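4.2 Preliminary Data

To establish feasibility before requesting continued support, the project team ran the inverse folding procedure on a target of 288 residues. The structure was first converted into the token representation described in Section 3, and no sequence information of any kind was made available to the design step. The complete token record follows.
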């Protein structure tokens, strides 16, 4: 993780901004935080450490990729079992006023907040691919907030809204699993299947067998709908996931295997063609 993204931990439990704040913490000496609550929403993204989170009377063990959403006025605190590994996490605060602003734009932005308030379910698990996608959005937001590049004041709320909408989509889809249906077109069902199986074999032969159609029909459908072959579509999807992963906490060698590439050389060639530099150069360029 980029060192300059890190913030020194503070026990402050109020916002300095009226809208949102985000922090990356990595603590090796923090032993105890008192139970507390606040008047804003707290998103918690767990990266590493021997920690549980107590919310009300319930204690939740957390693992890499877990997200928690703690609503206003709900008492909570971390329980640090040991510091054999650093306690690393992102913490994102968003005010109730900003949530109302998002609700005026679309209820899609606050599905997760409303769900947590009514269900009292605060913890959401994610696999590595999904969490790397989230983490890349968080890093991009922190980068913008720490930068003085042209347009960063305009870009920051766009990054915030994109992150929030993405989190809402994840929770909605966890609660409403995507299913293949006759109502959806074959193209839509194929896209759903590919999205859910990027780390597996996605050959035309396998897809044809899975959907009971000829591989030539599948190839024709993709060319008609998006103007590229299904092979190109799958490669672009895998590369995007790999790009997010290597900018996060995942090594390059782990990322390409996790995303369904069978060997490094084919991954390397595809990555360089897509992004104009090698995976190592890309990681170094964007994490300097």
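Position-by-position output of the design step:
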């Amino acid at each position: 993780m980029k060192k300059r993204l890190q913030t020194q931990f503070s026990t402050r439990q109020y916002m300095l901004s009226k809208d949102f704040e985000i922090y990356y913490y990595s603590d090796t000496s923090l032993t105890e935080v008192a139970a507390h609550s606040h008047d804003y929403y707290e998103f918690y993204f767990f990266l590493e450490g021997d920690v549980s989170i107590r919310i009300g009377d319930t204690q939740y063990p957390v693992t890499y990729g877990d997200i928690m959403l703690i609503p206003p006025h709900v008492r909570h605190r971390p329980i640090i079992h040991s510091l054999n590994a650093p306690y690393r996490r992102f913490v994102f605060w968003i005010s109730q006023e900003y949530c109302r602003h998002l609700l005026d734009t679309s209820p899609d932005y606050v599905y997760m907040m409303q769900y947590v308030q009514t269900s009292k379910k605060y913890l959401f698990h994610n696999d590595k691919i999904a969490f790397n996608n989230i983490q890349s959005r968080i890093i991009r937001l922190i980068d913008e907030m720490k930068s003085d590049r042209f347009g960063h004041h305009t870009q920051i709320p766009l990054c915030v809204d994109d992150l929030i909408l993405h989190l809402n989509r994840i929770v909605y889809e966890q609660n409403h699993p995507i299913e293949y249906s006759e109502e959806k077109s074959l193209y839509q069902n194929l896209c759903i299947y590919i999205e859910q199986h990027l780390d597996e074999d996605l050959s035309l032969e396998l897809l044809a067998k899975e959907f009971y159609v000829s591989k030539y029909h599948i190839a024709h459908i993709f060319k008609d709908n998006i103007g590229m072959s299904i092979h190109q579509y799958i490669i672009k999807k895998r590369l995007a996931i790999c790009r997010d992963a290597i900018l996060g906490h995942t090594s390059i060698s782990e990322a390409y295997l996790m995303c369904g590439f069978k060997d490094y050389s084919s991954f390397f060639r595809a990555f360089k063609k897509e992004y104009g530099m090698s995976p190592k150069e890309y990681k170094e360029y964007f994490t300097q």
